[in-house]
Amino acid sequence: MSRTRQMRRHAQKMRRNGLQPMVIIDRDDQFPDVAAVLVMRALWRYRSELAPGYLMAALVLGGAGLHLTHPEWWPWMLGAATALASALALSGDRGGLSLRIERVYAAIVAMGAGGWLSAATALGVMFQPLPLMLAGGGVVLAVPWWAHRRRRAKVRVDRQIAAWPEIAQSVGLSGSRAQSAVVDVWGWRARFALARGQTIQDVIGRIPALESALGTFRGAVRVYPTRDDKANRFELRVLDTDPHADAIPWPGPSVSSITEPIDLGPFEDATGARVLLLRRHGLIGGVAGSGKSGGINVLMGNLSACRDVVIWAIDLKRGMELMPWASCIDRLATTPEQAHAMLRDAVTVLEGRAEYLAANGRRVWDPTPEFPALVIIVDEYAELAEDAPEAASDTDSIARRGRAVAVTLIAATQRPTQKAMGKGAVRSQMDVRISFRVRERKDVDLILGQGMLSAGWHAHTLDAPGKFLLSAPEHDTPRRGRAYLLTDDTVTETAERQASIRPPLDEVSLHALDEARTAPVPASTAPPDPSHEDHAETVLRDALDGAPDEGLPIAHLLLITNLSRPTLYRRLAEFVKTGRAVQVGRGRYKASDHVQ
Ligand SMILES: Nc1ncnc2c1ncn2[C@@H]1O[C@H](COP(=O)(O)OP(=O)(O)OP(=O)(O)O)[C@@H](O)[C@H]1O
């Protein structure tokens, strides 16, 4: 056996024992051979860190060669660099540069490198100040590269994957192989193939050993079957940070249609708690301060990003919680009377849609921007049941018959007792249950359903605001999630941005509502208040007269007048036309000065 091979074996053995090999070179040895191998290995191993150096070396060699052979090519190269930089800036996301800052950086590097190369091609690499520019520019541009968090994470993961054969051997899973790995915000995940006869149970039994071998914190490693459910595969999830350690800022809407599942926030293993709300009723429960309103904000942020949903809302706490979203809410009820009227109209819509479907030989309402779903969000459902008991039959109808026609309820309440939920079937009809922290163990069954506490759904142990358990047809095991948190500014910005894409109610529903309004009033029902519109007009005039210089926002005017959005806009347009009011900014109005 050659001396070099002997040394390599010795080094491997030492590495297996956790020791760093030491190279001993005596005079007779083939020093250049061993040293060259070590240097090449280091150059390969640290290729990511050394990439800026490699790029600079390639530019020098390329520039020198091109200057000697084709100096007249420089304009082409400048053109190619410009084209490449533009492509990276405009559509680099398709190549994995998901953040704008990454695309800008890639474009600057492409332009800088291409520009330098074309100058070196025309003038030669030693032409002053080209060497200085290369060295200075290279170092400056290398700093963001070295500092980039995701790149460093990727390198670390690559090295762990490369070391997998040794890790696998030390934890007793020799023969398993990594097939692919991806890095994300919280850590990384990789798919592995098992050796013959090994099972996922063997891997699960070795999780503590794996955590130790990978050098992670306890609880950082999760093992799942792969999507194709092959018995000789598994997916490894390794967390660098605990996703639930701190409040998690909302990354923006995860959907653009109600036909897609909404991401409420990450589970403990950092996978998204995604739930479909299409043709489903939802119940959100939890004690005061447990994060229900935060959860509703996440839902509102997503629903208002869907062009195929009309949102109605009931907030009997005087609109405190839902008011910031008013510009995205088609109709907001803040008094028991308004809530009752709204729910009655929702039943009218439901029936109109059901008739339309039957007449067209269809079974379900498939939401589109022209024929949107209608989602009614009720904050503090218990107050509705108490203050507007006459609305109970309507909520009951919606709960029982609303799914097929995409008229659904999302109710939030602290304790959904039968009394709080009204007498009817509402609670039992809720398909999606989100439980934030509850005070008593027995409340688990109230929110999530009978028998859930004993099945391990321990919502009473959730230990921070925003943490929840999610029960839905696609979520049948208890997993802790943490809802994203929207700051007040995010809510304001999002509501403003998404107000412009809100769809109106469809023709079918509007027609049903119109018919119901013009239909003869049954003797038993009180006649509608004829003074409502006049009253709203007076309230609107008074509000505009007293408006500050910067005007009052539409959301505020909607709330105080209780007019529907189209009616309010029509009134405001009339006022502006007759010179009674002026539009001060985007969606802000006040009385015109000469009226006062
Ligand atoms: N997802 C979250 N992540 C981190 N902190 C949160 C989250 N949600 C809520 N919180 C914190 O908890 C506090 C109470 O939350 P929230 O108002 O949503 O609770 P609630 O259950 O709606 O209470 P109430 O019933 O009194 O309205 C918030 O002020 C916020 O600081």
> Structural class from helices and strands?
alpha/beta
Number of helices: 20
Give the number of DSSP strands: 19
CATH-derived architecture of the largest domain: 3-Layer(aba) Sandwich
Task: Tell me the span between the first and last alpha carbons.
Answer: 103 Å
Give the spatial strand order of the biggest sheet.
Answer: 10-9-11-12-8-13-14-15
Mean pLDDT level = 87
CATH superfamily of the largest domain: P-loop containing nucleotide triphosphate hydrolases
**What characterizes the major β-sheet?**
8 strands, mixed
Question: Which ligands occur here?
Answer: adenosine-5'-triphosphate
CATH topology of the largest domain, which one? Rossmann fold
Describe the structure.
Residues 517-536 are annotated as: Disordered. ATP binds at residues 286-293. With 596 residues, the chain is an alpha/beta fold. The protein folds into four domains: 1-44, no CATH class; 151-239, Threonyl-tRNA Synthetase, Chain A, domain 2, CATH 3.30.980; 251-499, P-loop containing nucleotide triphosphate hydrolases (Rossmann fold); 531-595, Orthogonal Bundle (Arc Repressor Mutant, subunit A), CATH 1.10.10.10. It is 45% helix and 15% strand. It contains 20 helices and 19 strands. It has helices at residues 3-16, 31-45, 47-69, 74-91, 100-123, 130-147, 149-162, 164-171, 200-205, 207-214, 292-303, 336-359, 381-387, 392-401, 442-448, 488-499, 507-518, 532-545, 554-561, 565-577, and strands at 177-183, 187-193, 221-224, 233-239, 248-249, 262-266, 272-275, 282-285, 309-315, 331-333, 373-379, 407-413, 432-435, 467-471, 480-482, 484-485, 552-553, 581-585, 588-591. It has an eight-stranded mixed beta sheet with strand order 10-9-11-12-8-13-14-15, sandwiched between helices. Strands 1-2-4-3 form a four-stranded antiparallel beta sheet. Strands 17-19-18 form a three-stranded antiparallel beta sheet. The chain is globular and about 100 Å long. Residues 17-24 and 523-530 have low confidence and may be disordered. The structure holds adenosine-5'-triphosphate (ATP). Adenosine-5'-triphosphate binds next to helix 11.
